[in-house]
């Protein structure tokens, strides 16, 4: 009997020693909420002496605003005894003797004693952890990109203001939602596997390296992103913090840079061609002029003046050829500038005038569709296009008489398509690209008047206004040059000016 009492006392002593040695505040209360035991950590954390706590209601350690709720919670625990965390999912606070409050975590355990069931509470001051969490939240909030933290199931647990701004959701609209809400629908089925893969091999990394990544705003619009993933260890398990950067501006700048690079390459090719022309096409008539001047000089010295008028005609022909070449070079360098005034054009009457200005040989006629449109456009570039196409058809015709035809159709909501067709010798398919290159002719220069600039000039002007050109010919007889032209050129000019203003 005495041994039993000794065993019980020894057990009680051991229990008290364990409670005293605990690194957290330990407080034992009876069913009425009266404090029956505390340890030194309780005195340190709450600022009371042991004597001031023993025999007091546990409510002395609670902020006053929570005290009225506590009896119900205590009764609830005693009706369903089991070890548990107190106030799961809520922020809990303790109250010190001086009235100050601090955040706590509380674990409660039922203890069977001879005097009935008691409750042993383990109370941890989590002020330092809360400060770290708050600091972490402040860092996330201050980040210049969207920050989104998700748990292992892909549920969003934290976002910053940038995430709201970039994705167009409110914070409340994101918290508790699956991360897939921010993905384009076509990628959502792949995402769980990628997420599981990341959780199985935790390490900071860039997401989707080598692939184009896109995110989805609340309004359904998509935009390109870069995503960095970081695993974060928390008391509730590993989370993933995603740093999401909207790279729309960078992608646009990259596209613009590529366009400028392409334009630069085109300009360099044109410059190289120009250098060739300057050294070859311009030198050729100059050499002819130099040679003819020698002939004239020899004839004058020898007194043979009868050949001089013929030499002078040759000389003037070479000079005209040089003048045409220089004029065409100047026209090409100016082609496609988005400038000039817009005016209304009755294309049928206007095209007839342009054709007649080419002074075509007597046997050449222009046939036009009866319903050619009347519309507002820049007259100078369109006139250059039609003049060059009419001139080309006449100049390269292989017969003294020919028929040129101007037809049209509506190609799209924004463009007309015009066609200038002739019944000349045709252009073989293998040469159809070559005719668009500067200074290219399919017959020797001396056989054909002109610099070989016509179709190169047409192509450059048309493409400057967003259009395109094409050739249709079987290479045996007849060819048609088609080009598209803006229906509303003012809208096109406004878009171009707006894009230029943004650069």
CATH architecture title of the largest domain: 2-Layer Sandwich
Rg result: 45 Å
- How much helical structure, as a percent, in the residues? 40-55%
Mean pLDDT: 80
In terms of structural class, how would the helical and strand content be classed? alpha+beta
Strand content: 15-25%
Q: The CATH topology of the largest domain, please?
A: Heat Shock Protein 90
- What is the first-to-last residue Cα distance? 97 Å
Number of domains: 3
**How many strands appear in the DSSP assignment?**
19
Number of helices: 17
Give a verbal description of the structure.
- By secondary structure, this protein is of the alpha+beta class.
- It folds into 3 domains: 2-125, Beta-Lactamase, CATH 3.30.450.20; 130-246, PAS domain (Beta-Lactamase, 2-Layer Sandwich); 336-503, Heat Shock Protein 90, CATH 3.30.565.
- The protein is 43% helix and 24% strand.
- It is built from 17 helices and 19 strands.
- It has helices at residues 2-21, 40-46, 50-53, 64-67, 70-79, 127-142, 161-167, 171-174, 185-188, 191-200, 248-279, 283-302, 308-334, 347-357, 379-395, 454-464, 489-502; strands spanning 25-29, 35-38, 84-85, 92-95, 101-113, 116-125, 146-150, 156-159, 205-206, 213-216, 222-234, 237-246, 342-346, 363-368, 374-378, 401-410, 415-422, 469-473, 479-486.
- The strands form 4 sheets. Strands 1, 2, 3, 4, 5 and 6 form a 6-stranded antiparallel beta sheet that branches. Strands 7, 8, 9, 10, 11 and 12 form a 6-stranded antiparallel beta sheet that branches.
- Helix 12 runs antiparallel to helix 13 and helix 15 (379-395) runs antiparallel to helix 16.
- The chain is rod-shaped, with a radius of gyration of 45 Å.
- Residues 439-451 have low confidence and may be disordered.
